[in-house]
Amino acid sequence: MPIPDSSLPPITLCAADAERLRMLSSLSHRVSPEVADFLEGELERARVLPDEDVPASFIRMGSRVRFRDDGTGLSTLVVLVYPGEEDVERHHVSILSPVGAALIGLTPGQSIVFASPHGRRRKLTILEVEQPQAGSTAN
Predict the structure, then answer these.
(1) Global pTM?
(2) Are 117 and 100 in contact (CB under 8 A)?
(3) CA distance 137 to 30
(4) Residue ranges with strand state E in the chain
(5) What domains sit in the chain, N to C, each tagged with a CATH number?
(6) For all residues of the chain together, what is the average pLDDT?
């Protein structure tokens, strides 16, 4: 079930992420149409800024993010990565997963409701965002 736009928090993306994510969302429709549709909706409503103008508090590709699942109260630390870089043991979550698509562009204190792969509504609240050091890879 789609989430109404009015209940979604504002998001901000850097231009480089927005461009690459548009391409990924269109290519992923055959594999995961629900996530691709959600990501496309996020891209359409996002405020896109030049890379250097996006504050470090916004979740971008490669960000380390601590969020709380408001349904369970559990806190999780993940790194947001591109498809093919996901790794459950290292807590690397793909942007093309429901959680990954929900996280992009948010800041600490914001919450978002999205549909899990089984259609269950989940609400996540962002607790912390950390950007990778320049020249390093996300760990």
Answers:
(1) 0.87
(2) no
(3) 29
(4) 12-14, 47-49, 64-69, 75-81, 92-94, 111-115, 121-130
(5) 5-130 (3.10.50.30)
(6) 90
